[in-house]
TrEMBL record, chain A:
Cross-referenced PANTHER family: ABC TRANSPORTER ATP-BINDING PROTEIN
Localization, UniProt: Cell membrane
Keywords: Antibiotic resistance, ATP-binding, Nucleotide-binding, Transport
A GO molecular-function descriptor: ATP hydrolysis activity
Protein name, UniProt field: ABC transporter ATP-binding protein
Pfam families tied to this protein: ABC_tran
Organism: Micromonospora inaquosa
ABC transporter domain boundaries: 8-231
Membrane topology: Peripheral membrane protein
This protein's record includes keyword ATP-binding: yes
Domain of life: Bacteria
GO cellular component terms given for this protein: plasma membrane
GO biological processes: response to antibiotic
From TrEMBL, chain B:
GO MF terms held by the record: ABC-type transporter activity
UniProt topology in membrane: Multi-pass membrane protein
Any one Gene Ontology cellular component term annotated for this protein: ATP-binding cassette (ABC) transporter complex
Family indicated by similarity: Belongs to the ABC-2 integral membrane protein family.
Top-rank taxon, per record: Bacteria
Protein name (Swiss-Prot/TrEMBL): Transport permease protein
Organism: Micromonospora inaquosa
Location of this chain's protein in the cell: Cell membrane; Membrane
């Protein structure tokens, strides 16, 4: 790609529906080629953000740039395509006709046979859409999104309503299609999907980004352990300076140390300080996700 | 963040120009037409039913003549052709309601297809089905023995067909008014009542006086008069022309406004 524009630039996006602030000052920059998971609980504002990103709705405040231009222009040029959470198909067309019809709206597309193949629905091309399963319809939407060979692919919870096998097939299709240069942004509730497929995870809650990092970084937030001890007058700065410490929190007489090396910290606390009642607890990604997306964060 | 900046090796850069005509394409139109012709319900109401009506209500009047000596069967046939065309164009326009209810319009907004190109496709599809409806009704008439001069076939047919444009607009108007999947089940009876007032089932003259007065203001009246004029030889009254133009404007402008509201970004 010759362009040096970010694939997506969201700046201070806000969107309210009556009293509900669905998106609350959200800023995000995605570079070409990144595969980003938009992870958050129900009502976090993922769909609302994606709608603004695609130009389907207008932000109350803030700006959206897609591949250096407006969303409408990116859509019209086939540079961005999407698989939406809502958005229907014509039940009386066949799978093949739906692809053929959609292809006519673009100046240039990949061949219909190729996108059907890549979405794994070649065998049902002659089937009427109304008689396809939810998973098959979702793969048809994916095939439609592949038609313009987009630079940016946006997927809003593409596997919702699919069974385990359907989800696996869908991600396999997406992965088979993955090629360098295409930016992918997908919204999901499922940590395992984000973990398995994204290079970067953006955690959203109540319309804000609560964490943003590489999958490894986000996992790190969670993979460590927390060492808790009773230590009146703990020297927070000194503890924070120990190797392997991610964060130190002092609550009254208690000190909580989040770390990747709980053994060393426990040893330090027991041998070099007056700490007692040492407890070590581990957190998994699920816990981190819950903590980050449900608890009130100070920031 | 580790952003990959690699180029797409082995992939030719796609053509990113905007589509011509806002994405309007004969290929998509062809699929739309195929869709319509596959819909048994539409075919039953636009092609079969009006033909059957002619056989039931028109044929028994064989041998009777109008004041100018032309056959009454032709009068019935032309009226029913107007009816067939208006049902045809309304049902295609009204299908917008179904597509909105299904969320297809939202899906379309993720493609380069401009809303105006979508509406143009719908209008052409509606008018194609309208033309087919007129032709089928005339064929049924011709086979059943209706004989009128060529210019009557041509002018009445054209008037019935072009007049049905008003109802293509009406269908779109309703389609953008109500996102319902079974919109035609609601509009069907409405069309029948309008056709009644428009003199398509019985001549307006047989209605009670008050209803005759009302009838001249209803949307089918104008196109009915125009379509039958070549046959009856009666001049086209100003009232009929005004009726047609006014209703065309009402539905056309109404559809355009609702369409604009629908495509506005919220
Ligand atoms: N059109 C609307 N009218 C009113 N409220 C809305 C509308 N769209 C979204 N909301 C509200 O905005 C908030 C964010 O919704 P949104 O759909 O963006 O969340 P989400 O993260 O996509 O959730 P989910 O995981 O359930 O899809 C919710 O509280 C929702 O109820
Ligand atoms: Mg959502």
């Amino acid at each position: 790609m010759t362009s040096t524009h970010p694939a997506v630039e969201l700046d201070g996006l806000t969107k309210s529906f009556g009293a509900v602030t669905a998106v609350d000052g959200l800023s995000l920059r995605v570079q070409p080629g990144e595969v980003v998971a938009f992870l958050g609980p129900n009502g976090a504002g993922k769909t609302t953000t994606i709608d603004m990103l695609l130009g389907l709705s207008r932000p109350d405040t803030g700006t959206v740039r897609v591949l250096g231009g407006t969303p409408d222009d990116a859509v019209a040029r086939g540079r961005v395509a999407a698989v939406l959470q809502t958005g229907g198909l014509l039940k009386d067309l066949t799978v093949g006709e739906t692809v053929e019809m959609t292809a006519h709206f673009y100046r240039h597309t990949r061949p219909a046979a190729e996108v059907l193949e890549r979405a794994g629905i070649t065998d049902i091309a002659a089937r009427v859409v109304g008689r396809c399963s939810g998973g098959q319809q979702q793969r048809l939407r994916f095939a439609l999104a592949l038609l313009p060979d987009p630079d940016l692919m946006v997927l809003d919870e593409p596997t919702t309503g699919m069974d385990v096998e359907g989800r696996r097939d869908f991600w396999q299709a997406l992965r088979r299609d993955a090629r360098r240069g295409r930016t992918v942004i997908f919204a999901t509730h499922y940590l395992d999907e984000a973990d398995a497929y994204a290079d970067r995870i953006v955690l959203v809650r109540q319309g804000r980004i609560v964490a943003d990092g590489t999958t490894a970084e986000i996992k790190n937030l969670a993979a460590g352990r927390t060492v808790r001890a009773t230590l009146p007058g703990a020297d927070q700065a000194a503890l924070a300076a120990l190797p392997g410490v991610d964060a130190v929190e002092v609550r009254g007489d208690s000190v909580l140390v989040r770390t990747g090396d709980s053994d060393a910290i426990a040893r330090h606390l027991l041998t070099r300080t007056a700490a007692r009642d040492v407890e070590i607890t581990s957190r998994n990604l699920e816990d981190a996700f819950l903590a980050l997306t449900t608890a009130q964060t100070g920031a | 963040m580790t952003a990959s900046t690699s180029t797409r090796t082995g992939v030719t850069e796609p053509d990113r120009r905007l589509p011509a005509l806002g994405g309007f394409a004969p290929g998509a139109l062809r699929i739309e037409l195929r869709r319509v012709l596959r819909n048994r319900r539409t075919l039953a109401f636009t092609l079969i039913m009006p033909g059957v009506f002619f056989l039931i209500f028109g044929l028994p009047q064989g041998g009777q003549s109008l004041d100018n000596g032309r056959p009454v069967t032709a009068y019935v046939m032309i009226s029913l052709a107007v009816y067939a065309a208006m049902v045809a164009t309304t049902s295609v326009g009204g299908a917008v309601a179904t597509e909105r209810a299904l969320g297809w319009s939202r899906q379309l907004r993720l493609t380069p297809l401009r809303p105006a190109a979508y509406v143009a496709t719908k209008l052409i599809t509606a008018m194609s089905l309208g033309l087919l409806a007129v032709v089928v009704e005339f064929l049924v008439g011709a086979v059943a023995g209706v004989r009128v001069p060529a210019y009557v076939w041509l002018l009445s047919g054209l008037a019935a067909w072009i007049g049905s444009l008003v109802f293509a607009a009406f269908g779109l108007f309703i389609g953008y008014l109500a996102p319902a999947e079974n919109v035609m089940q609601i509009i069907g009876p409405v069309l029948a009542v309008l056709a009644m007032f428009g003199g398509l089932f019985v001549p307006v003259e047989v209605l009670p006086d008050v209803l005759q007065q009302v009838a001249t203001f209803t949307p089918v009246y104008g196109m009915g008069v125009l379509a039958r004029a070549p046959l009856t030889g009666d001049g086209v009254s100003m009232a009929a022309v005004v009726n047609l133009v006014v209703w065309a404007l009402v539905f056309g402008v109404g559809a355009a406004r609702l369409f604009r509201r629908d495509t506005a970004r919220v």
